[in-house]
Design brief:
Its cofactor is Zn(2+). The chain is of the alpha+beta class. It has helices spanning 14-26, 66-71, 96-106, 109-112, 115-122, 126-137, 141-159, 164-170, 176-187, 191-196, 230-238, 311-321, 328-331, 353-362, 368-382, 400-404, 408-412, 418-432, 444-452, 459-468, 481-487, 492-499, 506-514, and strands at residues 36-39, 44-46, 60-63, 75-76, 217-223, 246-250, 255-264, 283-293, 298-304, 338-339, 518-519.
């Protein structure tokens, strides 16, 4: 990745300093990831929940992003670990263009493209893009991207025993030389020196032996903002898991999500790290397990060590699946006229967007249980057999390429009606030839139109795919029976009108309605009536 020089990022305005210091003083987790504090007397920047002794206010500078603090010459704290702070959802970004740009950068756009190509993708000039980043985030686009890569590298150095070369590659650096240079520039020590200074208790326990096929695992953590209803989220997923592909263990003593992982190993650009990937298979298979570290406000991710080449993609998908960038304090006030039963609700995402889309199509006009039974048949008939330590996990879900090569009769033999077979193959062809891209960086309106142009995919299915596969926070299912029942109207226009008060968080309103929230119409409006 190319570098560019920018002036030192400015800290946040004086008006916010007092409020931020109070949040730092109380270690208020609602602000975790929303700002960072740099301490001039130590040269270190921290999360607002850092357990270290409270610094004097005159020694504190507050920054909007970790990148801005790092660019101003501060090093990340080794106690609170800024790399574990929850991020911001796209809807929380101060500017729509910045939101879209950050999503693209976070998904590695600048690892393969230039600033000019990024700005062209957004429909603005590169100068305006740099200006927006400097104003809203305090850094240039390249410095923002580099800091993201370095924080990921810090996490992998601390939490795994992966070779430094592998970490450089997984963090998105074009060469080991550029990785070492940028790491030392930011942290005043080489990656190897950083690893050697770690206390023994901080070093990875990834060499834990099992009696299973997988003798090694990797363990990583991802932070979140409370409240976080982990059990409620798993309860929702447990009713929709695809047997053989994923499982949920949920009882009085356990709350664990597990699944088979199959990820295509993306080709590297021409770099001196390309040879490190030359012998990798086209698709990498493995497994993962996710549990909650409640007292630390983190999820613990355990995965088979053969997923190391795609560990960055795994972490992105886990973050999306469990909605870890959600800020409940931003959403709850918007749920007007809803008597909520769960303030820690999250929007369940998807680990694999195609898998979720097929699952959504199968769920049309049949029960949730019937849909996941048929989805399991699809996985066992056309997916890859995968060995895992868990008896209930045995197959990957077939990818779009595999499904697109099937004859309709092959799907029909599994109990799928002809209309659903047509819809499944249509979306498989569209994804395989890249007519449709189901990613969190996709243009939402365009994607909804493309989905609904396919046979057998209507408004409900398209909105459900947007809500879960794309992580769109403002989807609204006005044809959903649960929503209709909860809001007391079958009139789509009336339901859309009611939903406007929940924008841009209507997906969360739908989840609250599904989980039993009561809608209380405002007295100045007419009561909904059946149409």
């Amino acid at each position: 990745m190319k570098t560019e020089s920018t002036p030192l990022a400015e800290p946040t305005s004086a008006e916010t300093t007092s409020a931020y210091y109070q949040a730092l003083k109380s270690k208020d987790r609602r602000f975790d990831g929303r700002f960072f504090v740099a301490v001039s007397s130590t040269g270190i920047y921290c999360r607002p929940v850092c357990p270290a002794r409270l610094p004097k206010q005159q020694n504190c500078q507050f920054f909007k992003t970790a990148a801005a603090a790092a660019h101003s010459g501060f090093r990340p704290c080794k106690r609170c670990r800024p790399e574990l702070a929850p991020g911001l959802s796209s809807i929380d970004m101060p500017d729509a263009l910045i939101s879209q740009a950050c999503r693209l950068v976070d998904h590695g756009f600048l690892q393969q493209h230039s600033i000019e190509q990024l700005s062209a993708r957004l429909g603005i000039s590169s100068r305006h893009l740099r200006r927006l980043f400097q104003i809203e985030l305090g850094v240039s686009p390249l410095d923002y991207a580099c800091n993201k890569q370095l924080l990921l590298a810090c996490q992998l150095i601390r939490d795994t025993q992966l070779p430094i070369t592998t970490i450089a590659m997984q963090s998105g650096f074009a060469s080991l030389r550029s990785f070492n240079h940028r790491f030392q520039q930011y942290y005043q020590q080489t990656p190897s020196e950083f690893r050697k200074q770690l206390a023994p208790s901080n070093k990875s326990i990834n060499k834990t032996s099992n009696k299973t096929t997988y003798s090694k695992t990797l363990q990583l953590k991802l932070g979140y903002r409370p409240p976080f209803d982990w059990r409620g989220l798993l309860s929702f997923l447990s009713k929709r898991v695809i047997p053989g592909v994923e499982s949920v263990e949920l009882d009085q003593d356990h709350a664990v999500y597990r699944r088979v992982v199959s990820i295509e190993a993306a080709a590297l650009a021409t770099t001196d790290l390309k040879s490190a990937k030359s012998n990798q298979p086209e698709v990498i298979f493995g497994w993962l397990e996710v549990s909650d570290l409640t007292e630390k406000y983190q999820l613990k991710i355990t995965l088979s060590d053969n997923l190391a080449p795609v560990i960055t993609e795994v972490l992105k998908r886990v973050r999306h699946l469990f909605d870890l960038d959600c800020d409940p304090q931003m959403i709850i006030p918007q749920m007007s006229n809803l008597q909520l039963t769960n303030s820690g609700l999250r929007l369940p995402g998807a680990f694999d967007s195609f898998e979720m889309s097929v699952r959504a199509i199968l769920g049309q006009q049949i029960t949730v249980k019937a849909a996941h039974t048929i989805a399991s048949r699809v996985a066992k008939a056309f997916g890859q057999s995968v060995t895992t330590p868990f008896a209930e996990l045995s197959h990957s879900f077939p990818d779009a390429k595999t499904i697109s090569t099937l004859q309709p009769a092959q799907l029909g033999e599994l109990g799928i009606v002809r209309q659903r077979c047509t819809a499944i193959q249509a979306i498989a062809h569209a994804i395989n030839d890249q007519t449709i891209q189901l990613t969190t960086t996709s243009d939402i309106e365009q994607t909804l139109q493309q989905l609904q142009s396919l046979p057998g995919i209507g408004s409900w299915t398209a909105q459900y795919i947007a809500m879960r596969a794309l992580g769109w926070p403002d989807a609204f299912l006005d044809k959903d029976l649960g929503v209709i029942k909860s809001l007391g109207s079958k009139n789509a226009k009336q339901l859309q009108s009611i939903s406007q008060q929940w924008r841009p968080w209507r997906s969360y309103a739908v989840m609250h309605l599904w989980q039993g929230a009561t809608y209380l119409p405002a007295t100045e409006f007419d009561q909904p009536t059946d149409a």
